[in-house]
C-alpha cells in the first residue's frame, strides 16, 4: 500500500514557503497564485474556476502544500479529481463542516469545504476527522462522517481508527492546527496532538491503505519583511520541521509501496 500518486506541488498564495528552504530543496512543482483575488478564506466562483483549471494541469499530484489554513478549501478542488471511491481522512483542529445556523453557505470556504465535498463528490464515501478540539453536536449529525476528538487526556488505538476507514483508497488532508503550539504555529486556534502521533497515524494508514494523495496546510502568513524578525523565524522553522516530518513519512510509505510492487 502507500502513496499511489507521485511528486510534490507547492502552492504559493503568499511568500510563506520561500523561507522554508529545506522543504523547497525537494524536487517540486510550483504554482503561483499570489496575484489571485477573492480567494482568502472564501473562494468566489470565477476564482474557483481558474484554480480548478490550474490545478488540473499540474504534473506532481502526490503531495500538495497549500499554505495557510485560509486556503484549505483547495482540498475540495483536488478531491474532485479522484477517480475511485475513497475516504477523506482529515487531521484538523476544526471539522470544516460549515456552521450550525441551519442555512447553506453560498461560497466555498475554508470552514465549509468538507460539507461541500460530501454533497458534490459522489465518489467520496465517508470522512474520518481526527484531532479536533473545536466541535459541536451539529458536527456529529452528518451522515458518513466519523470524528475522533482529541482532548489530550486519552488516546485512540490505531485499530479503532483503521476500522473506521471502510474503503481501500483514501485521501489525506492535514491542517497543522491539529498540532499543539510547541510543534506548529498557525493563524488559527490549535489542538493538542503531538507531531509524533500524527506521523504514527500517517505511517500506519500508509501501510494498510492506498493513499491517492496528501495535502498539508496550516502555515502562518509570512511576508518577505517578516523573515528577519526573530519571532517569525522561530515560527516558520517550527512549521518547516513539521512539514519535513510529514513529507518524509509520506515518502517512506511511497517507497514501501514501490518495493512491494
From TrEMBL:
Protein name, as recorded: Arginase family protein
Gene3D superfamilies in UniProt: Ureohydrolase domain
InterPro entries: Ureohydrolase (IPR006035), Ureohydrolase_dom_sf (IPR023696)
Family of this protein: Belongs to the arginase family.
Organism: Neobacillus paridis
Amino acid at each position: 500500500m502507500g502513496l499511489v500518486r507521485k511528486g510534490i506541488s507547492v502552492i504559493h498564495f503568499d511568500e510563506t514557503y520561500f523561507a522554508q528552504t529545506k522543504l523547497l530543496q525537494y524536487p517540486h512543482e510550483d504554482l503561483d497564485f499570489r496575484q489571485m483575488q477573492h480567494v482568502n478564506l472564501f473562494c468566489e466562483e470565477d476564482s474557483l474556476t481558474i484554480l480548478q483549471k490550474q490545478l488540473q494541469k499540474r504534473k506532481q499530484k502526490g503531495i500538495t502544500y497549500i499554505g495557510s489554513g485560509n486556503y484549505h478549501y483547495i482540498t475540495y478542488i483536488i478531491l474532485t479529481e479522484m477517480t475511485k471511491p475513497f475516504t477523506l481522512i482529515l487531521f484538523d483542529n476544526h471539522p470544516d463542516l460549515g456552521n450550525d445556523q441551519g442555512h447553506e453557505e453560498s461560497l466555498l470556504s475554508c470552514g465549509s469545504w468538507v460539507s461541500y465535498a460530501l454533497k458534490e463528490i459522489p465518489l467520496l464515501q465517508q470522512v474520518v476527522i481526527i484531532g479536533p478540539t473545536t466541535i459541536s453536536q451539529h458536527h456529529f449529525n452528518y451522515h458518513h462522517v466519523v470524528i475522533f476528538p482529541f482532548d489530550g487526556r486519552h488516546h485512540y488505538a490505531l485499530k479503532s481508527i483503521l476500522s473506521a476507514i471502510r474503503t481501500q483508497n483514501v485521501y489525506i488532508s492535514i491542517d497543522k492546527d491539529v498540532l499543539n503550539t510547541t510543534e506548529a504555529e498557525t493563524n488559527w486556534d490549535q489542538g493538542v496532538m503531538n507531531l509524533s502521533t500524527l506521523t504514527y497515524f500517517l505511517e500506519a494508514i500508509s501501510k494498510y491503505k492506498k493513499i491517492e494523495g496528501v495535502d498539508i496546510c496550516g502555515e502562518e502568513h509570512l511576508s518577505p519583511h517578516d523573515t528577519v524578525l526573530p519571532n517569525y523565524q522561530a515560527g516558520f522553522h517550527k512549521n518547516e520541521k513539521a512539514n519535513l516530518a510529514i513529507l518524509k513519512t509520506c515518502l517512506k510509505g511511497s517507497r514501501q509501496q514501490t518495493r512491494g510492487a
